[in-house]
Amino acid sequence: MPANDLDLLIEAARRSAEVATAFVGGDLGVQYKAVDDSPVTQADLAVNTLLTQFLREARPDYGWLSEETPDGTDRLNTKRVFIIDPIDGTRSFIQGENTWAHALAVVEDGQAIASVVYLPMMDKLYSASLGGGTHLNGDRVTASATARPDEAQVLATRPSLDAGHWPGGLPKLKRSYRPSLAYRQSLVAEGRYDAMFTFRPTWEWDIAPGALILSEAGARITDGKGAPLRFNAQVPKAEGMIAANPDLHAALMQRRL
């Protein structure tokens, strides 16, 4: 069993990929959650079962927060907690696309300290540890230095560019999109895009793994109102998020206030 948390998450992500990819091209048993009508497949549940067994056996004293596990209060009394999205981008998975990911983090006292985002269909493994930098398939990556919003390429949904979100004036951005929030964050950490944001209430399992990958790549990440992100909250949701290098982040926030 890996001794440190990052190696443990990397092994867990690769084991998850073996489970998830076995479902590709077959019957996914798609169902829709009553709470928000979002889809869940048999692959999501199988990966969640694997991760629950593997990670909790390895670290039985850690708390647990996963999209596919009913939440409780025990995690609030633990120093460290796993925050997991077994398959981030389930709709992409259902449609046979390759931009879905396994997103895993260990959080200590509200701060992610080890994170992995793995896209098995592209064999892209992003990893970060607190103070250890961000890596893509073992190579160090950093966020871009683009400082001007009108020169920035961003990852965002169309509703995020509604004028109501930008009281200081909608910036002239070049917008693209990826279904997985974890992958959007990772692409900004890699420097392929300059910023990403969403202003909808956002579950912690969608953003905790990517938050450390971004910050260790030199990006600044906050909620959609500019407040610091803290994880393992009693209600595990954030008020959206915005991420970019510090100069671009500041310039975008000027338009948000």
From TrEMBL:
Keywords tagged on the record: Magnesium, Metal-binding
Cofactor: Mg(2+)
Sites where the protein binds Mg(2+): 67, 85, 87-88, 206
Gene3D superfamilies recorded: 3.40.190.80, Fructose-1,6-Bisphosphatase, subunit A, domain 1
Transmembrane segment boundaries: none
GO terms assigned for molecular function: inositol monophosphate 1-phosphatase activity; metal ion binding
InterPro entries listed in its UniProt record: Inositol_monophosphatase-like
Gene Ontology biological-process annotations: inositol metabolic process; signal transduction
Family stated for the protein in its record: Belongs to the inositol monophosphatase superfamily.
Name of the protein in its database record: Inositol-1(Or 4)-monophosphatase
